[in-house]
Amino acid sequence: MVPEKSSIGTSSALVATDLIGTTDMDFELDPAIIAALPAGAEIIAVDPHGNTNWSNGFRVAVEIGDGGEEFFLKIIDREDAIAMAIGEYESQKALFQYLPDNISPALAHGTLELNPDSAFFLTKFHRLQCGIIDPILLATILTKLHTTSSSPTGKFGFPVTTFKGYIAVVNEWTDTWEEFFARQFKNEIAWEQSVRGEDAEMEHLAEKFFDKVIPRLLRPLQTEGRSIKPVLCNGDLWHGNIEFDVATQAPIMFDSCCVYGHNEFDLSLMVAPRYRLGALHVAEYVKEMGVSEPREDFDDRLQLYHLRNELVVSGLWANWAHLRQDVKKTMRSLIDKYPQGLKGAEPIIKFKEKAVL
């Protein structure tokens, strides 16, 4: 994604005035939110804290007996709000199983009682500060996630719909990563054109791309004796979605868009120069995890994975609409490189078989 802030560590002047009046004790939380707080909690403060173009964030401070707690509350007021809250809740819940030191626990989600078209997501509040995570540390965290997690079905997908921005990811389970990736990429091409207008050249490129490039780069991962294990991926890992807990200095990930997929998919946003997680982070991860076979395809697989993000960003923000041209340029380049499609993989396959013999 792009540097649009959403989350548990930044402040904002936006206030959902239909939900909260002021922050000087003259406020009222929706009953559904109050019910999600710990029993006996007395609300002492609600402050605006973080926003995106599709949600508002708040710090909720409460007293429970002689102690106090703070929560981060996200209010989503748009189409698909309920599904978006569920997707974030289930993503953070899944990640927390494997990375409890680097994920804020998902505590609750629900539909607002006073506004049934809106939804909320509740988690622990962290005071966060910006910074770029050390490549070795990020590699360690991702390696732990990708080596200890596994798909509950053994397939690629996720139990619920997740959202990249506010764009739904089709997460129905598939047997192959190629099928999962191609299905979503087709949806994102169609969605981006619904926002930015039809593009005849994109349609022409897509026909060749789905026929030649995607099978050539993804099918070899799961053929000729090769296999990849579906592991839990963050799905939207860029520098804006990972910050540092002020108290512990531990990196905390948020705003995830999880999928059980190919582990290398979590490197896809590290390709573009505008992101501050980049080549050094990829290199350290590769030192820890290695790359999938065929190794020769690694760089092009990352370029392929990155195209999905660029289309979504093009559609979400008008000032990034030019990324459509970058997507088409990369598509043309990969089509030119793999004009034979799967037939072009035969030398790699034969060479590997010969090497084994």
Automatic annotation (TrEMBL):
Catalytic reaction list: N(6)-D-ribulosyl-L-lysyl-[protein] + ATP = N(6)-(3-O-phospho-D-ribulosyl)-L-lysyl-[protein] + ADP + H(+)
InterPro entries: Fructo-/Ketosamine-3-kinase (IPR016477), Kinase-like_dom_sf (IPR011009)
Catalytic activity, EC: 2.7.1.172
Protein name listed in UniProt: protein-ribulosamine 3-kinase
Protein species of origin: Apiospora aurea
